[in-house]
Amino acid sequence: MFQDQLNSDQTCPCGSGKVFRECCEPALQGTQPAPTAEALMRSRYCAFALGAIDYLIDTQAKEKRQPGEAELLAEQIQVTTWTGLKILSTRKGLADDTDGVVEFEARFESGPQKAILHEVSRFRKDDGRWVYVDGEVELRPC
Ligand SMILES: [Zn+2]
Question: Does the pLDDT at position 3 exceed 50?
Fold first, then answer.
């Protein structure tokens, strides 16, 4: 599905400057889990941008999953175009850590509206894989 929209040789949507194949694609494809909280965050941004709903649910902490979440995400993804990601800061979240925090700004457009989502996200490692726990979200028009 999402592979059709992006070639492995194209620049990764997460803004790292690397090609997709050498950045978020292995995490999204499930061939290599994201090694750090920041890498997971980047790959989840790509999943939002590309509509990889299963990946978004798989990489969320189990206790935070809501019934009907896939449908909700599908609706959100339909009406939202993600146009850029900027990582502002990270705390822990490295390969040897068990938790981490990533602060970022993601730009998006929804219909005529343009906005920036600012989030301080918490991540945790479950069974050796990083998952998204929750975050403090702030939206502002731009
Ligand atoms: Zn990437």
Answer: no
Looking at CATH, the fold of the domain delimited by 20-141 is given as Nuclear Transport Factor 2; Chain: A, (3.10.450)
CA of 105 to the centre of ligand 1 (A): 15
Secondary structure of the chain in the HEC alphabet?
CHHHHCCCCCECCCCCCCEHHHCCHHHHHCCCCCCCHHHHHHHHHHHHHHCCHHHHHHCECHHHCCCCHHHHHHHHHHHCEEEEEEEEEEEECCCCCCEEEEEEEEEEEECCEEEEEEEEEEEEEECCEEEEEEEEEEEEEC
pTM (whole model) above 0.90: yes
Residues with C-beta atoms within 5 A of ion ligand 1: 12, 14, 16, 23-24, 42
